[in-house]
Design goal:
single chain, mainly alpha, two-stranded antiparallel ribbon, 4 strands
């Protein structure tokens, strides 16, 4: 039996060299395939993994951007609702919410069942056109008086 110069012969089986990973030979009359073991990934396999990873990361980042923009739109809509309620209160009662006197608030502003809406009681700071927090906590009263008027609309 003749052997090629690149192969070592042992009986009728030829063994592959480093430059020739796959080849077939015959043992007796049966063809045999001798395979050299694979030692790593090919460039194509690595490129496919990188493309898949990149597309997954791109999808995740885009999803996070959509969630963030939705939250920003929601806050903007809430702020618009507060602005509308504030201006509507000022237009209807000719006073700032929180700076509306207690006697008028108890009769004019609807509150929870059995509980009238609170108003400021300090005659010095009440109805002066400013929301000041000296004794009455007018900033808290403002939210209390606006509570039923704030509308929230989805964008």
């Amino acid at each position: 039996m003749l052997c090629a110069s690149r192969h070592v012969c042992a009986g009728s089986v030829r063994y592959a060299s480093a430059s020739e990973p796959y080849f077939s030979t015959t043992i007796g009359r049966t063809p045999a395939l001798i395979v050299k073991s694979q030692r790593g990934f090919s460039l194509i396999e690595i490129a496919i993994v990188i493309v898949i990873t990149g597309s997954l990361l791109g999808t995740i980042i885009k999803g996070q951007e959509l969630i963030t923009s939705s939250r920003v739109r929601n806050v903007a809509a809430q702020l618009e609702g507060v602005k509308i309620a504030y201006l509507g209160f000022q237009d209807r009662y000719r006073a700032l919410p929180g700076d509306y006197s207690g006697a008028l608030a108890a009769t004019n502003l609807p509150g929870p069942a059995g509980s009238p809406t609170l108003g400021c009681a300090n005659l010095v700071t009440c109805a002066n056109g400013k929301i000041d927090d000296t004794n009455d906590n007018e900033s808290i009263l403002a939210w209390h008086q606006l509570a039923g008027r704030i509308s929230h609309r989805e964008l």
